[in-house]
Specification:
single chain, alpha+beta, 2 domains, 7-stranded mixed beta sheet, 3-stranded antiparallel beta sheet, 8 helices
Length: 270
């Protein structure tokens, strides 16, 4: 019995270790290993295929605890008006100053610090613009309850209405992006200069888009408009529904969408 428990524990440690590698193949093998380890643990405890299957399935069902207890009650405003605000403190965002310095060192000009907030949710943006290549960029900090993370975006807009987005958003995204968006999702560990170079390379691989220039003063209004259009798009797709005046929430379809996004993240399909 002890030797069997040691084998299960060793399989679990090996699976976790495999998921720490950058290789997607090893990551997925590690994921399958975690499921197999849970199956073996259930079999060891009860000697039953049913119990073993229940143990293995918990990896796929656990997200519903979060979805049903928190996401189901979540209400957010449809209107995401961006207001001028002070930057986050060093305690909240220790890397913020160095990221800003890196952005300006590669030719991006500071535009503004803005945010929108509701209840315990706050989304902060420091906006930049590259007048040479017509690229807008932002350093974003999302705070929700006690949880927070940051990501960096580079965006180019073409004359025919297409939007080209490079970002290092660390998770599978919880909504559909804007229509006509082409996404270049990159490793979150890349430096700002590497992200910018990836965006330029990404643009050059597209079908010769005619990128339009923006006035720096109009960037905040442009982002507000795109946020509203994205929310309306997700309402039309059935991911979100209106709730009372100017509030939105996830629909049942949206909850299943979030669950699928978790599965994509769990096995790293995207």
């Amino acid at each position: 019995m002890i030797s069997q428990a040691c084998i299960v524990a060793a399989a679990g440690f090996a699976s976790v270790a495999l998921r720490s590698f950058e290789s997607q193949a090893l990551f997925r093998i590690g994921t399958l290993g975690l499921v197999a380890t849970s199956f073996l643990a259930g079999w060891l405890l009860g000697g039953s295929l049913i119990l073993a299957s229940v143990f293995a399935s918990t990896w796929f069902l656990l997200p519903w605890m979060e979805i049903l207890t928190r996401v189901r009650r979540l209400r957010l405003p449809l209107d995401r008006s961006l207001r001028k605000c002070p930057p986050p403190s060093n305690n909240k965002f220790p890397d913020f100053s160095s990221l800003s310095d890196d952005m300006e060192s590669i030719g991006f000009e500071y535009v503004d610090d803005v945010d929108w907030s509701h209840g315990d949710t706050r989304h902060f943006y420091r906006l930049f613009y590259d007048p040479k290549n017509f690229v807008t960029a932002s350093i974003c900090l999302l705070e929700q309850d006690q949880f927070s993370f940051f990501y960096v975006t580079f965006t180019s807009r073409s004359k025919d209405g297409r939007l080209f987005l490079t970002w290092n958003y660390p998770f599978s995204y919880g909504m559909h992006l804007l229509p006509h968006t082409t996404l270049n999702k990159v490793d979150e560990d890349l430096e700002v200069e590497e992200l910018a170079l990836s965006h330029i390379s990404f643009l050059s691989s597209q079908d010769s888009p005619e990128i339009i220039a923006l006035e720096a003063e109009s960037i905040r209004n442009q982002i507000e408009s795109e946020l509203r259009t994205q929310l309306e798009h997700n309402i039309a797709r059935g991911i979100l529904v209106r709730d009372q005046d100017q509030m939105i929430r996830y629909s049942l379809r949206g909850m299943f969408f979030l669950w699928v996004q978790f599965l994509r993240e769990f096995v790293r399909f995207s």
